[in-house]
Amino acid sequence: xxxxxxxxxxxxxxxxxxxxxxxxxxxxxxxxxxxxxxxxxxxxxxxxxxxxxxxxxxxxxxxxxxxxxxxxxxxxxxxxxxxxxxxxxxxxxxxxxxxxxxxxxxxxxxxxxxxxxxxxxxxxxxxxxxxxxxxxxxxxxxxxxxxxxxxxxxxxxxxxxxxxxxxxx
Length: 169
Known about the structure:
The chain has helices at about 10-35, 140-169, and strands at about 40-45, 45-50, 55-60, 65-70, 75-80, 85-95, 100-110, 115-125. The protein is elongated and about 90 Å long. It is an alpha+beta fold.
């Protein structure tokens, strides 16, 4: 008994059309989903003293330019890290006379009328630390003496090695 064909010629055409339509939809859906999602933005650090610097970042704009603005630092232009990037970056210095509290930072994709995202920035009381960033506090005389002894020992060892080499050659 001969085997029956799996699909009739009219069914094959229908299957081919359904497969082609599925491929078109599958190819278009990532693009649609990428633009349908709203952008996400961030400020780092989220808490800073007046006069401190913050990094600004927004992802998912679909544009190569953007703006971040706040009453804590004014308006900053955001640009991609490189030409093909979809993330926009910038940095800002918080006004030195900013009062402690929460400030809104509004990110806007592209020109005016673009997608907007708002995040919060906390300005803490106190001044921004300069120099070593406040990583060095008060040092005891013992710590200073130990550091000096280690430096002197390292210098003495270096001189001894160099003098010994010059005698052997």
